[in-house]
Every structure is written in structure tokens, then in C-alpha cells.
């Protein structure tokens, strides 16, 4: 992780899963970590776990679905620092089921966290990252960004936004020394699945084991991909090959298959 050595990283969604693992893997190399999520107790426990001399860790409890709280986070950074040179936009949530049956509050939260907060934090922190002459932005996307996903319509669309935004930003920042990359994991065992599942939904069939990756591998591959200047990282060779081939198939041929899961869900 040459380019990230000595960085000060702000990690959203650091209270569990992929975000907490980013903090764990960066802690030996970073000089500062800013941990952001709603569950302050989890952030403090992670801080205690990772504390070592030479590493400054700050915890900031904030609901990223609330624009006022995002504003307070940015104001606190502006007033008291630290100066962030590595932004990891990782916080996110999903929702599984037919769109017409979704709760609006959940849909709104997905748009606010997965799209709006990610965009606003990038907008606010990028000028400082650029001034430092080095630095990085890593946006946690998903393989669902590659295809429209009936029964995860808004989630997949929010991740398609993340991929498009990341690619465009990467183009804008070429030659500035700032690295920009998207991490597109497939299924990972974290709290994500339980949160995306609706109360009345039956347990979905588990993802095939060969597509699953441990969270440690997801994060290691994401950091390595960023360090090597990759635009996107899909952890795991089988999944990377699968998504590469999928991207080659015109949507025209895929449409008949896309709605199968949704049709089954509607029959129930
Ligand atoms: N797990 C998967 O299968 C999978 C696959 C592909 C992509 N991803 C992506 O990976 C990222 C991390 O997910 P994960 O798998 O690690 O899931 P997770 O264990 O559920 O972690 C989600 C994190 O986001 C934070 N978060 C959610 N809503 C928030 C809000 N309103 N304000 C602030 N923080 C919020 C949570 O913290 P608090 O609850 O404490 O606020 C938590 O730290 C997400 O962007 C997700 O879309 C996951």
C-alpha cells in the first residue's frame, strides 16, 4: 500500500462489516483514522482495538441519511481537523423485494446514504485532497451496479450511480496524483443481508459459496486495486470473469431473464 502509507483516512460505515475491516487493515499504515457511522459504541470499541502510538483515531457518530448531521461532520473536520487525504465512501444499505411494496423511508435512506452522502462528502473533501498533492477516494460499490436488478431496483441503481460517478471523477482527476477507484464486491457475510431483508420476506437462497469472499479479502483487494491505479476492483476471480462476460452481453439478450425473480415474488 505504498500510496496510502501515512494517510489520514475517513471511513464511512466503520461500525461493522467492510468499513470496520478497512479500519483494521489501514491502522498499521495510516497516521490518522476518522471513523463514521451511527453506532457510536461500535466506533469507540474499534478505536480501542486499533489504538497504537502514532495513530490518531477520531470517532464521529452521524446519520448520513440526515443532511444536517453530514453538515455537522464536515464542519467539525473543518474546525478541528484532521486533514483527510483518503476518503472511503463505504456506508450503504440495501432493500430486497418488489419496489411497489417497499417502505418509502427505506428507499429514501438508500438514496441519501448510498448516493447523496457519498457525493457530498466527496465534494467537500476533494479540494483538500487535491491541495495535499496526493490522496485517494475509494467508493464501495457492488456487482449489482453492472445490471438493473429487479427486487433490488433502487439499490442496484444507486450502485450504478457510484460506478458512473467514480469513473467520471477519475477522468477529471487524471494527472493530479489523486487515486480514484470503485470496489465492487459480490456477496459478503456482513450485517448487510439481514438489514436488506424485509420483515415479511422469506430467507433468500444463499449465494453460491464460490462467489462469496471473506470480508478481509474484499478489503485487501480493494486497497490493492486502488494502490495499483485500477478504476474498479471485483474481488475474486470467478466473479470478476462472470461480470466481465456479463458486461459484454447486450441488455437486449438479458431482459427476458431479468424479471424472473420478480415474477416469482409477485406470485407469492
Ligand atoms: N455485504 C454485501 O454482500 C455487499 C456486497 C456488495 C457491496 N456491499 C456494500 O458494502 C458497503 C458496506 O456494507 P457491509 O456489507 O459492510 O454492510 P454492514 O455490515 O451492514 O455495514 C454497513 C455500514 O454502513 C453504515 N450505515 C448504514 N446506514 C447508515 C447511515 N444512515 N448513517 C451512517 N452510517 C450508516 C452502518 O453503520 P451504522 O448502522 O452504525 O450507522 C455500517 O457501518 C455498502 O456500501 C454495501 O452496499 C456489500
Placed side by side, the strands forming the largest sheet appear as 3-2-1-4-5-6-7
**CATH topology name:** Rossmann fold
Percent range for β-strand residues: 5-15%
Q: Could you give me the name of the CATH homologous superfamily?
A: NAD(P)-binding Rossmann-like Domain
Largest sheet: 7 strands, parallel
Distinct ligands = NADP nicotinamide-adenine-dinucleotide phosphate
Q: Class, according to the CATH hierarchy?
A: Alpha Beta
CATH architecture assignment: 3-Layer(aba) Sandwich
| Total count of strands | 7
Structural class: alpha/beta
Proportion of helical residues: 40-55%
Number of helices: 10
Query: What's the overall average pLDDT, rounded?
Result: 94
Low-confidence stretches: none
Characteristic key phrases:
single chain, 268 residues, alpha/beta, Rossmann fold, 7-stranded parallel beta sheet, 48% helix, globular, binds NADP nicotinamide-adenine-dinucleotide phosphate
Task: Describe the protein's architecture and organization.
The chain has 268 residues and is α/β, with parallel strands linked by helices. The chain has a single domain, classed as Rossmann fold, CATH 3.40.50.720. 48% of the residues lie in helices and 13% in strands. The chain has helices at residues 17-26, 40-50, 67-80, 104-131, 153-172, 192-196, 215-227, 237-248, 251-258, 260-267, and strands spanning 8-12, 32-37, 56-61, 86-89, 135-140, 178-183, 232-233. It has a seven-stranded parallel sheet, with helices on both faces. β4, α4 (104-131) and β5 (135-140) form a beta-alpha-beta unit. α1 (17-26) crosses α7 and α4 packs parallel to α5 (153-172). It is globular, with a radius of gyration of 18 Å. The mean pLDDT is 94. NADP nicotinamide-adenine-dinucleotide phosphate binds at residues 13-19, 37-39, 42, 63-65, 90-93, 109, 113, 140, 142, 185, 187-188, 190-192, 195. NADP nicotinamide-adenine-dinucleotide phosphate binds next to α1, α4 and α6.
Amino acid at each position: 500500500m505504498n500510496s496510502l502509507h501515512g494517510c489520514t483516512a475517513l471511513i464511512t460505515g466503520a461500525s461493522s462489516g467492510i468499513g470496520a475491516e478497512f479500519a483494521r487493515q489501514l491502522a498499521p499504515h495510516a497516521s490518522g483514522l476518522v471513523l463514521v457511522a451511527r453506532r457510536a459504541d461500535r466506533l469507540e470499541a474499534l478505536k480501542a482495538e486499533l489504538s497504537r502510538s502514532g495513530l490518531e483515531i477520531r470517532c464521529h457518530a452521524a446519520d448520513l441519511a440526515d443532511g444536517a448531521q453530514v453538515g455537522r461532520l464536515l464542519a467539525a473536520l473543518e474546525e478541528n481537523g484532521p486533514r483527510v487525504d483518503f476518503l472511503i465512501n463505504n456506508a450503504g444499505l440495501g432493500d430486497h423485494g418488489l419496489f411497489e411494496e417497499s417502505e418509502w423511508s427505506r428507499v429514501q435512506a438508500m438514496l441519501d446514504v448510498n448516493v447523496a452522502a457519498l457525493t457530498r462528502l466527496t465534494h467537500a473533501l476533494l479540494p483538500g485532497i487535491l491541495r495535499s498533492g496526493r490522496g485517494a477516494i475509494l467508493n464501495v460499490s457492488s456487482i449489482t451496479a453492472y445490471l438493473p436488478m429487479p427486487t433490488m431496483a433502487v439499490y442496484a441503481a444507486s450502485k450504478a450511480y457510484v460506478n458512473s460517478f467514480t469513473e467520471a471523477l477519475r477522468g477529471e482527476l487524471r494527472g493530479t496524483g489523486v487515486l480514484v477507484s470503485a470496489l465492487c464486491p459480490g456477496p459478503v457475510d456482513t450485517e448487510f443481508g439481514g438489514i436488506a431483508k424485509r420483515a415479511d420476506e422469506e430467507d433468500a437462497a444463499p449465494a453460491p459459496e464460490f462467489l462469496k469472499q471473506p470480508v478481509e479479502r474484499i478489503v485487501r483487494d480493494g486497497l490493492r486495486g486502488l494502490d495499483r491505479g485500477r478504476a474498479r476492483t471485483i474481488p475474486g476471480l470467478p466473479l470478476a470473469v462472470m461480470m466481465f462476460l456479463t458486461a459484454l452481453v447486450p441488455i437486449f439478450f438479458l431482459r427476458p431473464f431479468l424479471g424472473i425473480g420478480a415474477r416469482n415474488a409477485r406470485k407469492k
